[in-house]
Amino acid sequence: MPWLMHHQEDTQLDSRPESLSLAWYGDDFTGAAAVLEVLTFAGIPAMLFLDAPTPEQLSRFPELRAFGIASTARAHSPDWMERNLPPAFEALLALEPEILHYKVCSTLDSSPTTGSIGRAIEIAAKIMAPEMVPVLVAAPQLRRYQIFGHLFAGHGDKVYRLDRHPVMARHPVTPMQEADVGKHLSAQSDRLSVSVWPQDKNAARSEASQGQISVCTLDCMDPQSEAEAGQFIWENRRKNRFVVGSQGIEYAIVNHWIKTNQLPPPPPRSGVGRASGMVSVSGSVSPTTAEQIAWSRANGFAPIHFDASQACLGSESLTREIERAVYDSLSAITDGLDPLIYTAHGPDDPNVARFRQAAARSGKPITEVNQSIGKSLGTVLDRVLTQSGIRRAVVSGGDTSGYAAQQLGIFALTALAPTIPGASLCLAHADGPMDGLELALKGGQMGSPDYFGWIRDGGGPK
Question: 352 and 316: one domain?
Fold first, then answer.
């Protein structure tokens, strides 16, 4: 059976079975991997590359019908975007996807100066000239909901308006101060003319004034509205190939395809079994990650603190901290424990204040310091995996994941086993020793308290 079945309203896909239906560019690694899992576990052959794939790499996987590129755009300035996004978008467009998705976090992490979604829209509009840019951030599977243009997110047993969310309102780089998605994006670009669907029934035909870019944010709060949003995006794709949003984009399109019999219901998925050992690194300061570290400490893991302030003191200090973390990790493995190297135990950890003070004294840009920390954690992970022979790992923290994964020498990921939505276990592809590594990339605010144990056990349904 072809992966996408015939439907009378959309015969083009069935008549071009070798075509690329969707390409995505993730503004962080964990988010980019989340799109991968939605498509893969729906039965659509997909792959996530860590850089624009070469023709030789693509030729190894002729069955692909969707692929993405993971980046660290969320951590960078608009100037960085101006230099890096155009060639990335051009590389993806050269393969003629039906839809090009700029993947952002489901909690809208961004600001006018860091990870600007508004600037990304400006750049894409210049290249693709869409009539209108659909924006779907909500994903009910993740407890992310947009209602009348405002974004809400679950935490614990409650749902909060995003600007009152206990995690996102305290984000260390992009604290959320506005729940209205249109207003949040408009603060990042004065060229956006924003409407809300379905309140504005003419959103698909709206016209922006000269020099403006028409943007439509899509409400979504349940399976029915999700399928309707997917239909809206899919049926307008020829006029509006470029879309912005979380993995809610893929959830919505897949939901629409299944409801219209273009795609069979997804096959059941299972785990891959418990690993004989696992190594984890975390650069997250989220309370969610703090709960996971606490659970791990009581369940066979060895939490090892990595002093992030050393990244502010020069290369020699940082090198010593890396060597200490590697030594302590290998010692933990010898003792039969799984090392979990972390920078902070939640936002109230005194090490967070200590790091901020050191960063301020150093005079270095915080983005530069965070990049150095992420790369250092990646170096620790690479050395511990190489010296121990362990073949399963976790990286926690959206920005950390990008910088850390780049140190492993892998070029792509495929989804292997599900856990909670947005944090599956993946299989790494590399030309070196990390080929075949089982790797999970997790956003800081994602996952149940036992997440690290769940990955150690091989994922799959509980």
Answer: yes
